[in-house]
Amino acid sequence: MKKLLLAVLFAFAATPLFAGMNSDFSGSFNTSGFADYNRDISTLIGQADFHTGKGVSFPGFDVGASVSTVKTSDGSFSGDDYQYLPFITAETQIPILGMGVALRGTSYDDFQSIGGGLKWHGSLALINLSASAFYDRYKTDYYDGNHYSASASASVNVLFLTPYVGIGYDYSEMETKNYLAGYKTDDGVVRYTAGVNFHPLPLVYVYGAYTYTKYNHGFQGGVGINF
């Protein structure tokens, strides 16, 4: 467990060394690549929608840390080959509604995002099913944005593994500010994901996933506890 936590802490610490969301935007911005940049950010946030099809039962919690990454779209002005975002996530169930409620957020290199959503969970034979809707508000020194997403996922338990697949739709509105003020863009993109959870200890999970969209592809990895 110590090694898992150290690995995640290293990933969070190393992320700003490989990508600078704020400085990269201010130094490279151009209008022709604005839409692609917006879609990349949208996909990064949307990757945090799910890592399984199974839900949390009250009074249980699912608390985790993850890092999302996408290959920078060909049309984007970003100078980085990949964009990265770390996330802290937490989910529990609202008994009166029978639905899950989730919170997530991140902050590094002056990029800040906070969001939340509702999740429905069910099952069909041995398959766990999930559907969710999220809203996130994000900002840097140079732009503000709103992210909306809807996702559906399915998973199955196989010994100490939980493979899963999912599909989602991300929509993002981004508007520049300060000395770059005056530019807006918005767009949506479909996201396809396949991944697997590994359970090295009771209540503990580690997962990795691959994501594909029309404009780019990416990866996500994380660790957490579910109790």
Description:
With 227 residues, the protein is of the alpha+beta class. The chain has a single domain (2-221), classed as Lipocalin. Helices cover 17% and strands 56% of the residues. The protein is built from three helices and ten strands, in the order αααββββββββββ. It has helices at residues 2-18, 21-28, 34-46; strands at residues 61-71, 82-94, 99-108, 111-124, 127-139, 143-155, 161-176, 184-201, 204-212, 217-226. The protein has a ten-stranded antiparallel β-barrel. The protein is elongated. Mean pLDDT is 87; it is low at 1-19.
Q: How are the SSEs ordered, and which strands pair?
A:
Layout: H1 2-18, H2 21-28, H3 34-46, E1 61-71, E2 82-94, E3 99-108, E4 111-124, E5 127-139, E6 143-155, E7 161-176, E8 184-201, E9 204-212, E10 217-226
Antiparallel strand pairs: 1-2, 1-10, 2-3, 3-4, 4-5, 5-6, 6-7, 7-8, 8-9, 9-10
Signal peptide: 1-19
Keywords: Signal
Organism: Candidatus Avelusimicrobium gallicola
Largest β sheet strand count, sense and barrel closure? 10 strands, antiparallel, barrel
Report helical residue fraction. Answer: 10-25%
**Whole-number count of domains:** 1
Count of β-strands: 10
Low-confidence stretches: 1-19
Q: State the end-to-end distance.
A: 15 Å
* Beta-strand share of residues: over 45%
The succession of helices and strands, N to C, reads HHHEEEEEEEEEE
Query: Helices and strands: which structural class?
Result: alpha+beta
**What is the CATH T-level topology?**
Lipocalin
Strand order of the largest sheet: 1-2-3-4-5-6-7-8-9-10
Question: What average pLDDT do the residues reach?
Answer: 87
Q: So, CATH architecture?
A: Beta Barrel
| CATH C-level label | Mainly Beta
**Count of alpha and pi helical runs:** 3
Using the CA coordinates, give the radius of gyration: 17 Å
Note the overall shape: elongated
